[in-house]
């Protein structure tokens, strides 16, 4: 555009004129925008009553749910949480059996198997007791990724207990992801302690 | 571009003016971001004071502008905030008025300023602004306890949605509604809750044995994707918003996590460890085989979110630290945008909110993807993470 044509030049002059006119007009606001009144604040749930019942289709044997045994190599959990989950918790008895995982893995290592075996034999002698396996992760993963990984770890322990003869209905799982580290540090030593499954006994009242 | 005289400048502006089908486009080309780096647009601001000035500066910097001296700016913004917020935008070179002087009444100085910021963004770039949008996120109250909060996108007006003194995590908005889904351990077990912010009504929508987490609502607001472990492994499921009509989408032995929806609501993207390392996969919301989305250059990838315009998937990769990366939705070369984790798109498919670890806590940051500029969300609530941008 080194050599502007006469046409362009004249349009340019016209534009310059119209701009200067517009410039004069612009001294006063042309558009007044009314800001809508704020919406009512988020309603506090503190007064909200108990949680209503789950929709009926979630009970076993209903509608569109695919068979849960479609997963190969996994044992389905009971569809609903049973009463055992509200039994008193004993976190001490099996504390020494807390087992540890490799980074980003959910398989029970050979070195940790004896712990699961001793838990299995304890459960065989205490037929009324249920077991909760809590899965945990180190902080080197995103939060929801770790929540799934923690659950997978707990389920891997459950699978192993089932192969050792423990009834599937007696073993429950809970993932806490990375939210409850055993060691609050940020190094290898801490992470090793945090990739774990803890055993909690559930004793009937 | 270096131009020699005002004369040739004016001619250039004119030439574009004449060739352009839309006269108001002037010398700015409005185009969608195609993934490459962009330079911030230099602008100047004059006449604003105090809170209004700092809010306007924050909004415009997040939107991909850089505040410079008037004589080097591409656009000069002038205005005032005596009683009401007013502003106008002039192209410094062509002298064209991009935004005729506009004034705002009602609301607060803050909301008036956000409205002006959005009008400036629209006038200069043609894009819809995001200054009036909301976010939801998790705040850790103490070790192992957390609540869900909502606030303006810049962190102002933060309000606790839950006050359970338990662990509430993974908030997700229902599109275009004041309505959240999240996971809470309130019952001591991880269940998925639906929480209407207008009425305060709260319902459990999934409380099966094992894990119920990572709710994600389809763009049309009709379906809920989530992770359940009742099959014996964490799998992706889809249901109606009230939890009825449950369908299992994945049946792997390994765990899946963090489902999100495609813009058309036909597909669900998620993370699976089925191939050993965590990778991105897509499955039709109607079921069928899952297929992997390639993220070349990014190994262990988690927490995907599909952009509202359908073009991109943003995700987290763990290298030496967490990094926010991007791939085209069909897969391809991973592009690193910033250090951080757990990204969520703004409605403009351009701005991203994510969490950054600073010492022992996390802070929320805003990222303008094309310019890679990052600004922290101002919160004084402790460790904040898992942001979800209302769309």
Walk me through this protein's architecture:
The complex is a heterodimer of chains A (205) and B (391). Chain A is α+β, with helices and mostly antiparallel strands and 205 residues long. In chain A, 30% of the residues lie in helices and 14% in strands. Chain A is built from four helices and six strands. Chain B is mainly beta. Chain B is built from three helices and 31 strands. Strand 1 (31-34) of chain A pairs parallel with strand 5 of chain B.
**Could you name the ranges of chain A where pLDDT drops below 50 across 5 or more consecutive residues?**
1-26, 41-69
N/C terminus separation of chain A: 90 Å
Q: How would a crystallographer describe the biggest sheet of chain B?
A: 5 strands, mixed
Which strand-content bin applies to the residues of chain B?
Answer: 35-45%
Report the C-alpha radius of gyration of chain A, rounded: 32 Å
Oligomer type: heterodimer
The percent range for helix content of chain A is: 25-40%
In short:
Chain A has 205 residues and is α+β, with helices and mostly antiparallel strands. Helix content of chain A is 30%, strand content 14%. Chain B has a five-stranded mixed sheet, with helices on one face.
């Amino acid at each position: 555009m080194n050599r502007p044509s006469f046409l362009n030049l004249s349009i340019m002059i016209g534009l310059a004129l119209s701009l200067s006119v517009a410039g004069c007009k612009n001294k006063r606001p042309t558009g007044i925008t009314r800001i809508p009144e704020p919406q009512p604040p988020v309603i506090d749930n503190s007064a909200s009553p108990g949680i209503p019942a789950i929709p009926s289709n979630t009970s076993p044997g209903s509608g569109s749910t695919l068979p849960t045994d479609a997963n190969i190599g996994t044992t389905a959990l009971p569809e609903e949480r049973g009463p055992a989950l509200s039994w008193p918790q004993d976190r001490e008895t099996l504390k020494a059996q807390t087992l540890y995982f490799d980074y980003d893995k959910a398989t029970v290592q050979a070195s940790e198997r004896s712990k699961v075996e001793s838990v299995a034999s304890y459960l065989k002698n205490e037929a009324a007791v249920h077991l909760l396996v809590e899965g945990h992760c180190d902080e080197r993963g995103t939060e929801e990724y770790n929540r799934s990984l923690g659950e997978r770890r707990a389920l891997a322990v459950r699978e192993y207990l089932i192969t050792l003869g423990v009834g599937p209905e007696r073993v429950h799982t809970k993932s806490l992801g990375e939210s409850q580290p055993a060691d609050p540090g940020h190094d290898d030593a801490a992470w090793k302690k945090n990739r774990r499954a803890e055993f909690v006994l559930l004793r009937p009242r | 571009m270096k131009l020699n005289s005002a004369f040739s400048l004016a001619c250039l502006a004119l030439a574009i003016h004449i060739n352009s089908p839309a006269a108001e486009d002037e010398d700015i080309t409005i185009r969608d971001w195609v993934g490459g780096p962009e330079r911030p647009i230099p602008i100047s601001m004059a006449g604003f004071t105090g809170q209004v000035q700092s809010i306007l500066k924050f909004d415009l910097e997040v939107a991909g502008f850089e505040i410079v001296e008037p004589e080097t700016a591409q656009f000069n913004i002038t205005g005032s905030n005596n009683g009401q917020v007013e502003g106008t935008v002039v192209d410094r070179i062509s002298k064209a008025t991009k935004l005729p002087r506009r004034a705002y009444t009602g609301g607060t100085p803050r909301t008036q300023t956000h409205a002006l910021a959005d009008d400036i963004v629209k006038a200069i770039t043609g894009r819809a602004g995001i200054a009036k949008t909301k976010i939801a996120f998790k705040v850790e109250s103490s070790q192992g306890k957390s609540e869900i909060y909502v606030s303006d996108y810049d962190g102002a007006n933060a309000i606790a949605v839950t006050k359970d003194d338990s662990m509430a995590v993974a908030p997700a908005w229902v599109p275009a509604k004041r309505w959240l889904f999240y996971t809470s351990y309130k019952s001591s077990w991880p269940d998925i809750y639906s929480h209407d912010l207008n009425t305060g009504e709260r319902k459990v929508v999934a409380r099966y044995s094992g894990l119920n987490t990572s709710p994600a609502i389809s763009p049309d607001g009709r379906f809920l994707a989530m992770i359940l472990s009742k099959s014996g492994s964490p799998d992706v499921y889809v249901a109606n918003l009230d939890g009825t009509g449950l369908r299992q989408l994945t049946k792997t032995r390994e765990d899946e996590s963090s489902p999100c929806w495609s813009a058309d609501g036909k597909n669900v993207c998620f993370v699976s460890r089925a191939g050993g390392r965590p990778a991105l996969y897509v499955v039709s919301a109607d079921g069928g085989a899952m297929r992997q989305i390639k993220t070349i250059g990014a190994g262990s990838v988690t927490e995907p979110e599909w952009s509202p315009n359908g073009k991109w998937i943003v995700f987290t990769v763990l290298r030496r630290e967490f990094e926010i990366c991007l791939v085209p939705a069909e897969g391809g070369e991973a592009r690193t945008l910033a250090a951080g984790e757990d990204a969520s798109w703004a409605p403009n498919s351009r701005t991203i909110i994510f969490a950054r670890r600073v010492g022992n806590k996390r802070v929320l940051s805003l990222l303008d993807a094309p310019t890679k500029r990052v600004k922290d969300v101002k919160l004084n609530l402790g460790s904040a993470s898992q942001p979800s941008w209302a769309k």
